[in-house]
Specification:
This protein is mainly alpha-helical and 154 residues long. It contains 6 helices and 3 strands, in the order H-H-E-H-H-E-E-H-H. It has one domain: Winged helix-like DNA-binding domain superfamily/Winged helix DNA-binding domain (Arc Repressor Mutant, subunit A, Orthogonal Bundle). Strand 2 and strand 3 form a beta hairpin.
Length: 154
């Protein structure tokens, strides 16, 4: 038997959806000013955070919860624009290693400060410390439940 959402639960769900949509739109517009999509940025950040500046494609896909096909297509678009480089893994010819190019690092370096200011303006600075604590706790619960139900790519 289906447990339909109560009116209050439906309002909570819709509030979350509206918030996510508005945040996504604001972030997408900010990144577009630098010629980046949200997908570009989503892949560039974990690449930039690695000590050697590269990740196996499989690890990158797992990091961002993308399937192999989506990752491959996005990396092809980014490589065509000179943002990333893809090469066979030295220890496994079937594996691909992805790294940011110098151009990719430069674009990310220009976009990141404005992106952080935007995130701060529309999100972080809007929350009190107790609200931030509650959101982190809530996010951990939801992600944990989602991960338990989903087989992540990779």
């Amino acid at each position: 038997m289906t447990r339909w959402l109560t009116e209050e639960e439906q309002q909570t769900w819709q509030a979350y959806i509206r918030m996510r949509q508005r945040l996504d739109a604001a972030i997408a517009a900010g990144l577009a000013e630098h010629g980046l999509s949200m997908a570009d940025y989503e892949l560039m950040v974990p690449l930039s955070a690695t000590p050697n500046g590269c990740l196996r494609a499989k690890e990158l896909a797992s990091e961002v919860c993308w399937d192999k096909s989506r990752l491959s297509k996005q990396l092809a678009r980014m490589a065509a624009r000179g943002l990333v480089d893809r090469r066979p893994a030295e220890d496994d010819a079937r594996g691909i290693v992805v790294s940011l190019t110098e151009e990719g690092r430069a674009v990310l370096g220009r976009a990141a400060p404005e992106h952080v200011e935007l995130v701060r303006d529309v999100f972080v600075d809007r929350l009190s410390e107790p609200e931030s604590d509650a959101l982190r706790s809530l996010s951990a619960k939801v992600v944990g439940a989602s991960d338990a139900r989903t087989t992540l790519p990779g």
